[in-house]
Amino acid sequence: MADRKALFTATERKFAEAVAQLAHCNPFLPERIACERAALGDEFDEHLADWNVRPDAESDHPNLLRLLARCEATLQGAREHVRQASSPRERALYEDLLLMTLYHRHRKALDELIREGSARPGGQRPGSLYRALKRDAEHFLGAAPSSFVEQLPHLFAGFFQIRRAFENIFRLIHGVSRPAIQLRAAVWESIFTHDMRRYRRVLYERMADYTTLVTGPSGTGKELVAQAIGLSRYIPFDAGAGKFREDFACSFYAVNLSALSPTLIESELFGHRRGAFTGAIADRQGWLEVCPSLGTVFLDEIGELDASIQVKLLRVLQSRAFSPLGETAVREFRGKIIAATNRNLFEEMQAGRFRQDFYYRLCSDMVEVPSLQTRIQDNAEELPHLVTHLAQRAVGAEAPELAEEVVQWVDRQLGRDYPWPGNIRELEQCLRNVLIRRAYTPPRESGNKPATDTHQELLRAILGGELTADELLRRYCTLVYRATGSYEATARRLQIDRRTVRAKVDAEVLDRIQHAPRAE
């Protein structure tokens, strides 16, 4: 028997193990930087290493270029020995190095494919790119028997999905604060889960079984989060035909439930047959029928949904079955559902307005979108960053000048501690007001008590010994939460558990403070 030779030297093996972790980690978490540092050692460049904050730093960052060069060199050195018998672990490390190499070699071409497909739906030409990737894979694998080549169409589809996920996350979720970065990490897990290996093995074709519930205050961009998830789903690649099975650019269907009557909601979702109700003059397909198996239906304001429709949607989530209005035949829903609400669904369930069984079918995956106030308090650069992004949409090339004008106006007139009750939606209107009139007037409700009156009430109650210990904790947690806008920040400030903060915040007192006008 021919002598067996190890694929890697000790140094190469250490590098390969770090790359294997890097290839499967969440790129928006600190572990990515730790993996890059472990792989590159003294060659690691700290400058702009956190490209998950600055997406423009990813393309040709020195760390990525060095990683790719070392991956290729290590593969080339081990290539002649991969044909020989070797341990399964070494072959797995070799294939992880190859994964990283193929991905980065073809990353920019995949991005061009995405831009082409976005501009001209149905105009993708991925066949030639796949053949180039296959040639590279066969070069490094040689004649060695491997399931890797058999999996290449699946791996190519996975690379395409990863690049679309980066594109959608960076395009739709802006910000440099920790809450913004954590939101991007949460969206990544909603797409791929926390275990990329398991996702690649079995979960890639099953994610439609898991409903995503997006929560957060009104105006924070919950629909953008839903789009980032829904538009980044896995799409199989047909190597024989040289194309993807579905068009990624036309696979997201949004329904604002609060804007429709119960009958119209049913018609929008389930469809109807002619004569099913007054005004139904023709058959109509609903979004659950139109949506393809790799598509997504987004249900905004799910907390507003009538109880009778909750029951019908519960059936969809449980059995994937529905019937159009006026028809008894059962149809199958094949896509994914993402729902969003700014309501506290726990309180809605306690009040009997939201079904518990429906909630527990919705919450298999949850994403919480932070308030604008929380983001600005975390990082002073968040406001200028977001204003610049909004200004680019408003005035194009003159965005820097407008952004500077708006930020200066906010600092001078509102201050950085302004709570932004309307969140990013309000910030956008503030920018437009400053653009047109050089001023913005926040909404005020004169009928409510000023927030200072609420503070005085608390002070009088404390001095008078009128509060129990639990009542005092509730009031104090509510006031601090109002100031921080975050359960995590409140917990850190009060040095108590986040779950305690969530349980103690008094919704009635919070609502009264939030809607109170400022004392003059």
Please give a structural write-up.
With 520 residues, the chain is α/β, with parallel strands linked by helices. Among the domains are: 145 residues, P-loop containing nucleotide triphosphate hydrolases (Rossmann fold); 66 residues; 64 residues. It is 55% helix and 7% strand. The protein contains 25 helices and eleven strands. It has a five-stranded parallel sheet, with helices on both faces. A two-stranded antiparallel sheet has the order 2-3. A two-stranded antiparallel ribbon has the order 5-6. Strand 8 and strand 9 form a beta hairpin. Helix 3 packs across helix 4. The radius of gyration is 27 Å and the shape is globular. The chain starts with 9 loop residues before the first helix and ends in a 6-residue tail after the last helix.
If you consult CATH, what is the topology of the domain at 224-368? Answer: Rossmann fold
Share in helix: 40-55%
Structural class: alpha/beta
CA distance, first residue to last residue: 90 Å
Full CATH superfamily name of the domain at 224-368: P-loop containing nucleotide triphosphate hydrolases
Oligomeric state: single chain
**Would you tell me the overall average pLDDT?**
88
Number of helices, counting only DSSP H or I runs of 4 residues or more? 25
Give the class-level CATH name of the domain at 224-368. Alpha Beta
Beta percentage is 5-15%
Strands side by side in the biggest sheet: 4-7-10-1-11
Please give the radius of gyration in angstroms: 27 Å
Per CATH, the architecture of the domain at 224-368 is 3-Layer(aba) Sandwich
Unreliable runs: none
